[in-house]
Amino acid sequence: MDEDLVIRALANRSRRQILQWLRAPTRHFTVQVDGDLVKDGVCGVLIARKLRISQPTASEHLKVLSHAKLIRGKRIKKWTFYKRDEARIKLFKKTVLAKW
Questions:
Q1: For residue range 59-70, what is the model confidence (pLDDT) as tens digits?
Q2: Residues 74, 81: contact at Cβ < 8 Å?
Q3: H-type helices in the chain, by residue range?
Q4: Cα separation values, 79 from 43, 58, 99, Å
Q5: Sign of the alpha-carbon dihedral angle for 90, 63, 27, 39
Q6: pTM of the predicted model as reported, rounded to 2 decimal places
Q7: Burial per residue of 85-98, b for 16 or more beta-carbon CB atoms within 10 angstroms, e otherwise
């Protein structure tokens, strides 16, 4: 696990907000045309809209979270849907707690 990559990803408030929203997607996002919020994840367009930022900026945040393996993307048609990688997040928490 590249802990530094995860820590850098979590250093940004918007990325932490995305992770929080993705924890309970049905509570934070409306129903999507394609893809199930829980099974498939949340469309990047909806994440950008909720953050009130441009799609390219949201894509950069999502890319950082993906590289840190905190989220996973899934292509459906021409859209990418994102959901948390709970196993990776759990491993990171366990690793950090073990060091304290």
A1: 999 999 999 999
A2: yes
A3: 3-10, 13-23, 25-28, 44-51, 55-67, 86-99
A4: 7, 13, 39
A5: negative
A6: 0.92
A7: beebbeebeeeeee
